[in-house]
Amino acid sequence: MLTFILFIILKIILGVITEFCRIYLFALSIRVFLAWIVTINWYTQPYIVLKKLTDPYLNLFRGTIPLILGMDFSSMLGFLFLECVIQLLESIYIEIIY
């Protein structure tokens, strides 16, 4: 009985972490898309919240790839890493179910 309860708790925790990663990936997508729009003032609402949520993660990858034609593609590493984490969590979740 105890193992069944732990099994259910583990499934719930993995599901919540996976969904959080998906939502964060969506927020990153919005942040990178809005960075291409020149007229956005990042110090007004709601942009400042998006910037504060996503910049610490994106700063981990900035500077890892040199600028190509003046564009910073290091955020792609952040997307790739987060997508790999999501895939890993989903595969663990599927293994637990079966």
Automatic annotation (TrEMBL):
A GO cellular component entry from the record: membrane
UniProt keyword annotations, A-Z: Chloroplast, Membrane, Plastid, Transmembrane, Transmembrane helix
Transmembrane segment boundaries: 25-44, 65-89
Gene Ontology biological process terms from the UniProt entry: chloroplast fission
Pfam family, one: CCB3_YggT
PANTHER family (alphabetical): PROTEIN COFACTOR ASSEMBLY OF COMPLEX C SUBUNIT B CCB3, CHLOROPLASTIC-RELATED, YLMG HOMOLOG PROTEIN 2, CHLOROPLASTIC
Record's protein name: YggT family protein
